[in-house]
Automatic annotation (TrEMBL):
GO cellular component, one term: plasma membrane
Annotated ranges, domain ABC transmembrane type-1: 91-305
GO biological process: transmembrane transport
Transmembrane helix is among the record's keywords: yes
SUPFAM superfamilies from the UniProt entry: MetI-like
Gene3D superfamilies: MetI-like
Keywords associated with the record: Cell membrane, Membrane, Transmembrane, Transmembrane helix, Transport
Mode of membrane association: Multi-pass membrane protein
Name recorded for this polypeptide: ABC transporter permease
């Protein structure tokens, strides 16, 4: 009887289905099961439960009461509702932060990455220097900047007074509060985007730059015709993720300005937190509806950005 070389099974003996290929069928499921478990417990279930809660009136202490679309109405089209005014005021504050921060959080890391990618003297030191703040917690970052920017006892105003200049209310008046929030966010997060751009720059073949030099392209022309097209994928990822992160800002204004002056820096996530978890009558259903609306806005913005940045010319 002739045998196969690798299995010792006779060639004319049929193999029972399911006996030899069960590992191929179930091994992938075994490997992804830990991630699938945490995905369901910490993402899928909370998301679905949040959508369910958004159709109810609930304050954590009593039974949830179904109210249909009333929570969404108070946010979206009942203009005489205080929640309508406060929600869109908070959205405006969030949008201001996004517009002020995202361009710097993309452009500065990009040029830092280009400079470090040329491998100047001490480039590893500077790469570690710019990345180090991203390892700190947001509380640590905000406390450092409060110590520096405090109006009365801050390090920055101390040196301004030494130069004969007036103290600047960095954390108590507009537009200085926005400048402060953007500065601390840039210092904290540019390192991550810089590393992503460095990885993308490493994937651009040197032959493209050599060909551009042969064709007479200068450094600026090489940047626009070689570097930027080569970073198309990383650029799309960085812009989308940075935009999402900026829309989800909360800790910086909460810790540094308390949402002030007035409600100037009360961003949307901070307002949702206040509605859902603070006060004598928390409104979990209304906060959940606000979260769902914010999620839909972010999904729409991400899709638009992805389409615009990945379409072929």
């Amino acid at each position: 009887m002739k045998l196969q070389k690798n299995g010792g099974i006779p060639l004319n003996q049929p193999v029972k289905p399911g006996r030899t290929d069960w590992k191929e069928k179930y091994a992938p499921l075994i490997f992804i099961s830990p991630h699938l478990f945490f995905f369901i417990i910490f993402l899928a279930y909370p998301t679905l439960y949040g959508i369910y809660i958004s159709f109810h009136s609930w304050n954590f202490f009593t039974d949830a009461t179904f109210v249909g679309l009333q929570n969404y109405a108070n946010i979206l089209w009942v203009t005489d509702s205080l929640f309508f005014d406060y929600f869109w005021a908070a959205f405006r504050a969030t949008l201001i932060f996004v517009i002020l921060s995202v361009p710097f959080l993309v452009i500065i890391p990009l040029f830092l990455a280009i400079g470090i990618n040329t491998r100047p003297f001490g480039h590893n030191f500077f790469r570690a220097l710019f990345y180090a703040p991203s390892l700190l917690s947001v509380v640590t970052v905000v406390l450092i900047w409060i110590w520096m920017l405090d109006t009365n006892a801050g390090l920055v105003n101390y040196y301004l007074a030494y130069l004969g200049l007036d103290a600047i209310p960095w954390l108590t008046r507009a537009p200085w509060v926005w400048i402060s929030l953007v500065l601390m966010t840039i210092w904290w997060t540019i390192g991550t985007n810089m590393i992503l751009f460095l990885a993308g720059l490493g994937e651009i073949p040197d032959q493209l730059y050599e060909a551009a030099k042969i064709d007479g392209a200068n450094k600026i022309q090489q940047f626009f015709h070689v570097t930027l097209p080569g970073l198309k994928g990383p650029m799309a990822f960085v812009v989308i993720m940075t935009t999402l992160a900026s829309f989800n800002v909360m800790a910086q204004p909460q810790l540094a300005t308390g949402g002030g002056p007035g409600y100037e820096t009360r961003v949307l996530i901070l307002y949702i937190y206040e509605v859902g978890f603070t006060g004598g009558n928390p409104r979990a259903g209304l906060a959940a509806a606000m979260s769902v609306i914010l999620g839909m806005i972010l999904l729409s913005i991400s899709l638009i950005q992805f389409k615009l940045m990945t379409r072929e010319k």
